[in-house]
Design brief:
Elements lengths: L3 E9 L1 H19 L4 H10 L14 H10 L3 H7 L9 H6 L7 E7 L3 H9 L1 H4 L9 E3 L1 H15 L3 H10 L14 H12 L2 E8 L2
Helix pairs in contact: 1-4, 2-3, 6-9, 8-10
Length: 205
């Protein structure tokens, strides 16, 4: 079955973050605390996966576990899609009205951006990112405090950058920002403008 997924990081005022928190934070915590979630994360941290180009001929339990780990979480997905609360829909209530400067959005068919991002970064860099597998809701103070860690995660030597790009399997249109560039840009913008951030990975269809 086909699907379309999106991962977005959007900037918001402190007041907007506070308004989103009652809906999104419980869903984020429920996904983080779901059965097997911590085990899947720890398994990947202990045994990073091989090059994704080998997965189609050597697909096994570790790859399936990583796919489950990095797919949109059920609770956040249901909340953002209006299934938990019909009065709330991510496109209208989180993403609408965002400027290009304050938002990074990547949409893909039959792929999950967070899966490719974490595979490209590897476990050590991925562990520096706040939240849980691409989802987070941060106040302006938390954005500022986490920026040094996010900068460490996304700062590469030329060789490291080439390796990360080779491990990012997503297809991008000409000029489209990649998962290796957009998050740090938005983080720096939010820190500079005293904004909070909301990261969400969801199914659109």
């Amino acid at each position: 079955m086909g699907f379309t997924s999106a991962w977005a990081i959007s900037g918001h005022t402190d007041e907007d973050i506070a308004n989103l928190a009652p809906r999104l934070l419980p869903a984020m915590r429920a996904d983080r605390d779901a059965p097997d979630a911590a085990r899947r994360w720890q398994d990947w941290q202990r045994a990073p996966l091989p090059d994704h180009r080998t997965w189609y001929t050597d697909y096994g339990p570790a790859i399936e576990s990583f796919r489950e780990l990095t797919a949109p979480g059920t609770h956040v997905d249901d909340m953002c899609g209006g299934r938990t609360d019909p009065a709330f829909y991510v496109v209208d209530d989180v993403w609408d009205g965002q400027s290009e400067d304050s938002m990074f959005l990547t949409v893909h068919s039959k792929e999950y951006a967070v899966s490719s991002l974490l595979h490209a970064l590897g476990p050590t860099r991925a562990a520096l990112l706040p939240g849980w597998c691409g989802t987070f809701l941060l106040t302006p103070a938390q954005v500022a405090a986490s920026l040094p860690y996010v900068e460490r995660a996304f700062t590469f030597t030329p060789d490291e950058r080439a390796t990360a790009e080779a491990r990012d399997w997503l297809d991008y249109s000409t000029g489209e920002e990649s998962v290796l560039d957009g998050p740090l840009r938005v983080w720096r913008t939010a820190a500079r403008t005293d904004m909070g951030l909301c990261g969400l990975s969801v199914h659109l269809t």
